[in-house]
Amino acid sequence: MTDIFEGDPRIVLTANGADLNYRGGQPTMDTGVENTALISLFTKPGWPGNIFAPPENRIGSDFEDTCRGSITLRKLLDIENSGRRALTSKTFPDVTVDLSNPASDNLRIHTTLGPGGALNLVREGALWKNQAADPAYRKVVKGAV
Fold first, then answer.
1. Distant-in-sequence, close-in-space partners of 116: CB < 8 Å, separation ≥ 6
2. What phi and psi, each to the nearest 5 degrees, are found at residue 42?
3. CA within 20 to 30 Å of 70's CA: 23, 35, 78, 102, which one?
4. Do residues 82 and 100 make contact, with C-beta atoms less than 8 angstroms apart?
5. Tens digits of per-residue pLDDT, 77-112?
6. What is the pTM of this model?
7. What is the pLDDT of residues 1-40, one digit of tens each?
């Protein structure tokens, strides 16, 4: 049995950006590779924290921008390629990204990272529109403790 309180706090995507889940006052933890994948996919290339990392360890992808807009056959291929580029690394050399478009403004993304890790994302029109209109990075209050 996996201990839900071991590891790093699990990042959960919501309509208002990202959040943490709590059970009994304690955050539930990422039990595998989910946080790594989400950070790799949803961090913009110009993220300021990259200045502390050597060039080969800097993160950032165009995945979120690629997923915006109308879903076309070309867009599905672009999203697939963007996800693969963002996630392929020394840690995950074998990345598979499978997409489906069950409804006009929804996108289901199933990503397999190596032999065992998997991540499922759902792009629901309302969630991504809310995030675009009011991104999480704008919600950080400068000078707050």
1. none
2. -110, 10
3. 35
4. no
5. 998 999 999 988 877 788 888 888 877 667 888 888
6. 0.69
7. 455 556 788 888 776 777 888 888 888 888 667 788 888 8
Q: Transcribe the chain into DSSP letters.
A: ---TTSSEEPEEEETTEEEE-EETTEE-EE-SSHHHHHHHHHS-TT-GGGGGS-GGG----SHHHHHSS---HHHHHHHHHHHHHHH-SSS---EEEEEEEEETTEEEEEEEETTTEEEEEEEEHHHHHHHHHS-GGGGPPTT--
Please report where in the chains the tokens 């502390």 appear, as a residue: 52
Give the count of beta carbons closer than 10 Å to the beta carbon of residue 53: 11
